[in-house]
């Protein structure tokens, strides 16, 4: 994987209005470690893309709409929306794959992509798994440039999928189950995304309000987790980088993760193991922590505390070992200490928990998925896209076999 002198270069690719809403909040951060302004939001629906563009203009404090569109937005496909039917979103991406590729390659030779989509809809949920698959395996016919192809072959693809609220209509839960399966596995039952990160709206918003400001709070939590995850690769102290996150879990076939975050903990008062426990209580999906098969701990502390020896790398390693031992977790994983600006004592902790039993999350959607499965198989909802019974069976088989390998 190509590296700059000090950090991995990331690009963010978001599709659908939900994904665009999340991506736009990156611009609220004073610093985007490794991302800078390499952010592209895509949509098949002009009105939804307009909402995202307006949001980007507000975040960037600009009235130059053309500059925002040229730098950060793309309308793709000939349909006006996916109709909450993920095959339509995939068909639009297939139709305009060359335009999507050209826009993404304008970011230059990124080392990793963070693909973002909400899994209940049709646009992002349909297009993102397809785009990842094509980037990994299908671009040779689109690009004759050997150097460009070598770059594309080396890029690591992480995906962040957001589960719909539990109360939402069955169609959205049908989409979510299909989207998770397609992010994890290709039609040929091979690994698709190198890492699949998951968050659940209802788990992060336990009152299930679904209000706009609550979406912003959920999305801000997601951005915080991504910042912590990417920020660890910025520094030379006990670096954990994207290649560390994906290599062993992929070999174990246990490459789905959820973040667990605790921020603003007083590092002068609390023990590190307590901080890890606090983070573990903040998982982004329902799960049993003791089913974790791969874990990474990132502790971010003020540089002053690190320089003064108040928090050290050996202490972080030891606390992580003690924490995994206390929970009887036999994991593949690493721990990292990374600095942040500021002279206070506030410490942030991210646990990336992977390979856990997915059934507590799927239980909220499986009945809806099965109820709609038979009626949707063989349907077409415009744009020439359909979902055959064979395709649906493959989606089910791929997901069930993956979940079974990672269940207790």
Characterization of this structure:
The protein is of the alpha/beta class. It folds into two domains: 10-234, Tubulin/FtsZ, GTPase domain (Rossmann fold, 3-Layer(aba) Sandwich); 260-358, 2-Layer Sandwich (60s Ribosomal Protein L30, Chain: A), CATH 3.30.1330. The protein has 17 helices and twelve strands. The strands form two sheets. A ten-stranded mixed β-sheet has the order 3-2-1-4-5-6-7-10-8-9, with helices on both faces. Strands 11-12 form a two-stranded antiparallel sheet. Helix 4 packs across helix 6 (123-138). The longest helix is centred in the middle third of the chain and has 20 residues, at 212-231.
Q: State the distance separating the first and last CA atoms.
A: 34 Å
> What's the tally of helices?
17
How would you sum up the major sheet? 10 strands, mixed
Helix proportion of residues, in percent? Answer: 40-55%
What is the H/E string? EHEHHEHHEHHEHEHHHEHEHHEEHHEEH
| Total discrete domains | 2
The proportion of residues in beta strands is 15-25%
The count of β-strands is 12
CATH class of the largest domain: Alpha Beta
Protein structure class: alpha/beta
Stretches with pLDDT under 50, minimum 5 residues: 1-5
Q: What fold name stands as the CATH topology of the largest domain?
A: Rossmann fold
CATH homologous superfamily heading of the largest domain: Tubulin/FtsZ, GTPase domain
């Amino acid at each position: 994987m190509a590296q700059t002198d000090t950090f991995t270069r990331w690009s963010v690719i978001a599709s659908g209005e939900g994904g665009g809403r999340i991506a736009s909040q990156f611009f609220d951060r004073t610093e985007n470690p490794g991302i800078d302004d390499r952010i592209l939001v895509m949509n098949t629906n002009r009105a939804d893309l307009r909402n995202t563009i307006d949001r980007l203009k507000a975040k960037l404090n600009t009235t130059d709409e053309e500059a925002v569109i040229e730098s950060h937005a793309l309308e793709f496909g000939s349909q006006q929306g996916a109709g909450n039917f993920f095959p339509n979103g995939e068909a639009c991406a297939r139709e305009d794959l060359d335009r999507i590729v050209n826009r993404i390659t304008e970011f230059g030779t990124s080392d990793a992509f963070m693909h973002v989509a909400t899994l209940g809809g049709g646009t992002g949920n349909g297009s993102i798994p397809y785009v990842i698959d094509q980037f990994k395996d299908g671009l040779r016919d689109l690009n004759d440039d050997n150097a460009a192809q070598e770059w594309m072959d080396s890029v690591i693809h992480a995906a962040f999928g957001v589960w719909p609220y539990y109360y939402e209509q069955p169609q959205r839960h049908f989409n979510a189950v299909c989207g998770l399966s397609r992010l994890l596995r290709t039609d040929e039952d091979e690994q698709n995304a190198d890492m699949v990160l998951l968050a659940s709206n209802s788990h992060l918003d336990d009152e299930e309000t679904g209000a706009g400001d609550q979406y912003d709070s959920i999305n801000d939590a997601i951005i915080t987790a991504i910042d912590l995850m990417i920020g660890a690769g910025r520094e030379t102290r006990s670096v954990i980088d994207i290649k560390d996150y994906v290599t062993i879990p992929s070999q174990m076939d246990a490459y789905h993760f959820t973040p667990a975050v605790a921020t603003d903990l007083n590092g002068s008062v609390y023990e590190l193991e307590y901080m890890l426990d606090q983070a573990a209580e903040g998982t982004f999906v329902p799960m049993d922590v003791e089913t974790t098969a791969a874990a990474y701990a990132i502790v971010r502390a003020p540089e002053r505390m690190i320089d003064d020896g108040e928090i050290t790398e050996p202490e972080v390693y030891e606390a992580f070992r003690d924490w995994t031992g206390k929970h009887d977790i036999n994991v593949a994983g690493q721990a990292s200490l990374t600095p942040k600006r500021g002279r206070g004592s506030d410490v942030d902790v991210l646990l990336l928990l992977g390979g856990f039993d997915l059934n507590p999350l799927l239980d909220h959607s499986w009945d809806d998925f099965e109820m709609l499965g038979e009626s949707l198989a063989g349907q077409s909802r415009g744009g020439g896209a359909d979902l055959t019974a064979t395709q649906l069976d493959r989606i089910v088989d791929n997901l069930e076999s993956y979940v079974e390998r990672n269940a207790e």
